[in-house]
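worker-3 :: picked Imidazolonepropionase
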Amino acid sequence: MVIRIRGYALPHGEYVDLYADGDRWTTDPVPNAELVAEGWLLPGLVDAHTHPGAAEPGDPLDEDLLRDDLRLHVDAGVTLIRSPGLAGQPPEWFGTDPELPRASHAGPWLAQRGQFFDGWGNRVEHADLPGVAAAQAKRSGWAKIIADWRLDDEAVPVDVLTAVAEAVHGVGGRVAVHTQHAAGSTAAVRAGVDSVEHGMWLDQDLLPDMAAKGIALTPTLSGFQDMVTGLGDRPDGPAKDWLLGGTEAHGPLVAAAAEARVLVLAGTDSRPHGQVATEVRALAAAGMRPHDALGAASWSAREYLGLKGLEPGAPADAVVYARDPRTDLGLLAEPLAVILRGRRVRPSVTG
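worker-3 :: tokens ->
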């Protein structure tokens, strides 16, 4: 069955009439195409920081759970994910299954010894980190470095991260860096990595440098806000102060990043999955324009990850809404249709 959608396409808001020619959009009419939805069109939602496939930190990758988690993303209108760190190398169907989102990934995390969750990721010596990261990025396009972890842990030095970035870029890959400390985020930006993940305690003075270098920020803002709600019963001390203070500054950081023209990406981090709309609302509440907050989970993120939007020749993904979701971000929970690879997957054709 050939499908057709029409309506006002974001980000430009112009009226379009699109037909799915296999897995590509075309404006050329296709005989007997079925009009499956019309309204306001987005080129699919994107979760740019998600770790599906493991129930608890340290658990091995579970293929059945991975499928379940990815179905939750599709239910939420997500047609593309980036997973900067997985509990293991993913199965061959990851990112290609016709019922599940397209995907890019960084394989297992790369961390310093004594840091990160036990059972997850690979512990790599500084001297070996550039080569290991480049090998991973050559396989999957991305490598993910845990630059820092607990409050008193030493961050990966800037010279090491610089060597990592150079090695990964040398094979045509990109580097994502987890950081929740000032030292780690400073090292990541000065090294010229491709994305800063979380970025709690990132110095706002670094934002112009990030914008100039094209370094994206994925703050996973809603995840930190949820975590803080459970800190009330913890004993007072430096660790609690670090988490509370960093989270308090996180929203203003996001607003300042957007103002500085840093590309902000929407990511939800861990469980539960299928919550990218919550992250979009958190970004807007922090001070991003609704247009830009939505772009962080749609057209801007797709472009950053190498996919075009709603135009001829682009991958045939879309989410359709009854009204302009920028006027009410709550509409993100109510898609009329989700189109993935030229097929309507939500609601299903039969239901």
